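FIELD: query
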Amino acid sequence: MRYASVMYLHKGCEEEYKKRHDELWPELAEHLKQHGIRNYYIHLDANESNQNSNRLYATFDADDLDSKALADHPVMQRWWEYMADIMETKTPSFEPVADALQEVFRFNVLQPDKTRVVAVLDIGKTNIKICLMDGQTGALLHIEKRVNGVVDAPPYPHVDVDSIWQWIKGTLADLAQRYFIASIAITTHGATIACMKGDQLALPILDYEYDGVSELKEEYDAARPDFSESFSPRLPQGLNLGTQLFWQQERFADEFAEVDSLLLYPQFWGYKLSGNKAAEVTSLGCHTDLWNPTSCQFSTFCEQQKWAERFPEVMETGAKLGTILPGLAKETGLPASCVIFNGIHDSNASLVPYIGQPMEKLTVVSSGTWTVIATINGKLDSLQEDKDMLANVDALGRATPTIRFMGGREWEQLRSDSKATLNDVNFILENGILAIPAFAKGGGPFAHCEGRIIDRGIELTPAQQSALADVYVALMTDYCLDLMDSSDTVIVEGAFSNNVNFLTLLACMRSQNEIYASRDVTGTSGGAALLSNKSLKLKGRLSLALCDANIKPLLNLYRQQWRDLVGEL
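FIELD: result
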């Protein structure tokens, strides 16, 4: 944002004013930079024949400027006192009299030395990314990425917080040398929570794939809320967030008794960056058993366990948490004005570009480690608990019918390093080679089934293995869409939006739908960035997926054979 004002210089003080600014105090210059001020110009009207002579016209650029913090700093106070003898100032302070000017025209504005960006911290189960989005256009400018992992050590498998935090700080410090990072948005995977004692973890952040929490299955099942209240299906491992808390409360009673706040995973990282604690609905409503999506409040189970009172205030998704901690700004080189925004659950971030669209209903397939299919403005009537269907909560707090399976993980397990062509897909269809679910235990309609491949005695080439993976995830997506209250338009976001075989197969199987692939490679990161900066111009470029008429008849027979087999599971 550009700020402009007019100030008033005493006559005869023109040279002294320029001299003092030529000798600007280094500590003042640093103070201005730390508040994100750049492109600062002051012009003097020195025309003595003009009644407005000795006016100073000042302009500068800054993002989310904290004017009070800027003005209250001792160095600014001393500067104003130093300048008071040659300028008009306010009483009793020495602040210069400055009248704001209104912008009425702009032409051919040049970019500043550093491009202004929104940094998106995107923590997935498989990978961690920091994506830089242009602060004006929303275009993806840069990605830094590393593999995520779990510490498999006592007291239980847990998030490697220290390693992630060091990587985040080091990466931001490197990027800050090349970009002006005006704000940081956050999106993470769900089913993860931090049990805090003050500003420290009371317990390590439990990995949701830890099976040990199942030892209290009977006790938990007796206590958890009905599906009709929470719209959370009963999931394996720690995928119901309530399961984790229930188990930690029982097995680590002393440590849990000292927990004074519960931070959902996006909000944990928001706290690390800003020092401010909050809660947020998309992570609270993500198959946790802790939230009632239809009434938009904590579930009776969460209240009974006295966990609700340990959550901080529920803040709007994408709300401003605060600015970056001063010590962290100094350590990383980020501007002190860098704003931290309340984060969002990653699958819900994929919905953000579309939740404001005028259409009545829209189905989005968000693909990553999980393939999450959600229908904006859809009905909850079709949800079946035993099919791993649920109501997620979107960024506006609305219950959103959802079904999912671990598509990315299953695809990785089935594929090879060789890319499949449509000819390889044809080979799979012609020979009736079938992958029968499931190949991951985390969830989905067939989570409790053991995956198997019917290979007909044929040894597949690496490319044909990848073709089988493409066919499998397309069939699973098609199956899940049939269970859903889906719309006529289906948009594929994330990894599978670049898989031509997947898109072609889905388009062939679903003539009742128009299947689109998002051409914006940012996926969840783009949605998180849009929440934090609503002026971004994310256009959501889409391309229509087309059916290949040559494979459709064979695919229809193959699909029916696959459906018959999975119907027996």
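FIELD: remark
The CA atoms of residues 194 and 268 lie 7 Å apart.
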